[in-house]
Amino acid sequence: MSKKAKQASERIADDMIEQPVDEWVPDYDHECENCGETPVVTGVHRGIVVVATGMCGCCTWGEAACIDPAQW
């Protein structure tokens, strides 16, 4: 494997590491990229956003009840 290919594969692997999520927080400032509803789902770990889905609860988890952030 070439040096460039090895560096690229390491960079990709680093980006694919799963981040732990402490809580799912509603983001009322953005609309769902799929259906336009608010809020969208944001995953937070130690006060830092680690997952920004860009989708509402229904589109993220596929359940109508998830429109309510209390169900997340």
How would you portray this structure in words?
The chain contains two helices and three strands. The chain is of the alpha+beta class and about 70 residues long. Helices cover about 25% and strands about 30% of the residues. The model has no long low-confidence stretch (mean pLDDT about 85). It has helices spanning about 5-15, 55-60; strands spanning about 25, 40-45, 50-55. β2 and β3 form a beta hairpin. The protein starts with a helix and ends in an 11-residue tail after the last helix. It has one domain. It has a three-stranded antiparallel β-sheet.
What's the β-strand tally? 3
Mean pLDDT: 85
Low-confidence stretches: none
Biggest β-sheet description = 3 strands, antiparallel
Structural class: alpha+beta
Work out the oligomeric state of the chains in this entry: single chain
